[in-house]
């Protein structure tokens, strides 16, 4: 995985960020071809006729991360719609989809990246299968600066999951 501080070095910290979680692993040649296709979109991506400066990467073979910036402006709703349309259509062409934003994505004890609904996650917390030490993936980050500062993966006790699911602070902070 690319180090979070090395990610998108040509983008400023206030660049907008979209994180999509794939419903399956995207690796090898599929990943290369998918990235080539999405990069072909971003080189011509515009928002109200203004070019969007964007970069894209797949992290951990599961997370599509898109960083976008317009100097002296914001990516409009129409520009965002173009991105969503491109990402959705291309993933369909490659035979995978994206999880909805309400899924909780975490690392199991055996290192697998898993995703489940909030109620199922709450049950795992109650059964102490998931604890403040469990590694979670925060796909709710909005800016590249947030990703650089706190990272995509962190202990549940150090993320929004702690207050939402009544997890204490991690022992190994």
Structure notes:
There is one protein chain. The protein is an alpha+beta fold and 173 residues long. The protein has two domains: 78 residues, Alpha-Beta Plaits, CATH 3.30.70; 53 residues, no CATH class. Helices cover 31% and strands 22% of the residues. The protein has five helices and nine strands. The protein has a four-stranded antiparallel β-sheet. Strands 1-5-4 form a three-stranded antiparallel β-sheet, with helices on one face. The radius of gyration is 17 Å and the shape is globular. The model has no long low-confidence stretch (mean pLDDT 91).
Report the total helices: 5
Largest sheet: 4 strands, antiparallel
Overall mean confidence score, pLDDT? 91
SSE string, helices as H and strands as E: EHEEEEHEEHEHEH
Question: How many distinct folded domains?
Answer: 2
Q: Specify Rg, calculated over alpha carbons.
A: 17 Å
Distance between the termini: 22 Å
Low-pLDDT stretches = none
Q: Tell me the overall shape.
A: globular
- The percent range for strand residues is 15-25%
Backbone structural class? alpha+beta
Number of strand elements: 9
* Architecture per CATH nomenclature, i.e. the level-2 architecture of the largest domain: 2-Layer Sandwich
Read across the widest sheet, the strand sequence of neighbours is: 7-6-8-9
| Oligomeric state of the chains in view | single chain
